[in-house]
Amino acid sequence: MVDQESLREEAARLLRVLVETPFQECHALSREFRELPNCTGLYAIKHQTQSVLYIGKSGNIRSRLRGGHKALGWAFIDRLDPDDVRIAVARLSFPWARLSLQLEQVVLRQVRPPYNDRIAQED
After folding, report:
1. Contacts of 93 (CB under 8 A, 6+ apart)
2. What is the mean pLDDT of residues 37-64?
3. Average pLDDT over the chain, rounded to whole?
4. How far is CA 30 from the centre of its chain?
5. Residue 95 banded pLDDT, cuts 50, 70, 90
6. DSSP 51-89
7. CA 35 to CA 44: how far, in whole Å?
8. How many domains does the chain have?
């Protein structure tokens, strides 16, 4: 069992990776998302000037984005230039993968990305 302090520390590490990864080092949008890892982790859809638009978790990040994503639909509707939107990835090690939902919730409370709120209202 993981204590709350360890959970907060890991969430802080993941948040730093997602937020502080320079835009140019994030993964560009593509049809197949071949550059994205097929691993468990958190991911952030980022805008070059607006920062983080959405944060999510997935057991396979590449498959999650390849299958379509509401946040990318919102970016299209908002008429954001696709060249100004990229994806940052924070991989989870095996012990943390079981706690991905809790980690995602801690990170979301810190950042409060605008597209997470829109999607929650839709559902």
Report:
1. none
2. 94
3. 90
4. 16
5. confident
6. EEEEEEEESSHHHHHHT--HHHHHHHHTT--GGGEEEEE
7. 15
8. 1
